[in-house]
Design a protein that fits this description.
191 residues; mainly alpha; Hypothetical protein af1432; 10 helices; 0% strand; binds zinc ion
């Protein structure tokens, strides 16, 4: 059924194809930390790929590779040419799809993510949903130095981006809804 079915790919991910990407991403993010300034950054792309595989039951290698690499263009000096050379044009195109235009100021980038979400490919939509799940968990459970209001605004914004990604992966969408609800309650209790 269009919109609610699981991804159709039956390809078995090659361990070396995934591990080569993981090794590359870990190297590129090696000096970065998450918003708590303690957690190694690479934990986030790993969490995104793990959510796609476990919750979203995604077995498509390109999607899992792009998930591990989804922040390298945005947050490191890695170039499109490098991704193309190492991992090919399909992985590059998918990473580019989920990369913000850094020349825009943050509020515009955020608005753009909401507007662009419905036009993304199914693979990119799945990565976006898993990315938002991971970020919501991190900003609500890690010691992130953000005022409560900013955390709530992040959750509201993530909900709008994911609204445009619906119909791409039902289990992932349900998981997002669950996480959004429980983490909102967690923030409310911390009031
Ligand atoms: Zn991310």
């Amino acid at each position: 059924m269009e919109g609610t079915s699981l991804p159709q790919e039956t390809e078995i991910p090659s361990p070396s194809a995934l591990l080569a990407v993981l090794s590359f991403a870990a190297d590129r993010h090696r000096n970065q930390r998450r918003k708590d300034n303690a957690t190694p950054f690479i934990n986030h792309p790993i969490a995104v790929a793990e959510l796609l595989a476990r919750v979203g039951r995604v077995t498509d290698v390109t999607t899992l590779q792009a998930a591990l690499l989804h922040d390298v263009l945005e947050d490191t000096s890695t170039t499109a040419e490098e991704l193309d050379k190492h991992f090919g044009p399909a992985v590059l195109a998918l990473v580019q799809e989920v990369t913000d235009d850094k020349s825009l100021p943050s509020p515009q980038r955020k608005q753009r993510q909401i507007e662009h979400a419905p036009h993304l490919s199914t693979r990119a939509k799945q990565i976006k949903i898993a990315d938002k799940i991971s970020n919501i968990i991190d900003i609500t459970t890690q010691p992130v130095d953000w005022p409560l209001r900013r955390k709530r605004e992040y959750l509201d914004w993530a909900e709008k981006v994911v609204a445009g990604c619906r119909g791409s992966n039902a289990p992932l969408e349900e998981h997002f809804d669950q996480i959004l609800k429980t983490q909102r309650e967690l923030l409310d209790r911390g009031d």
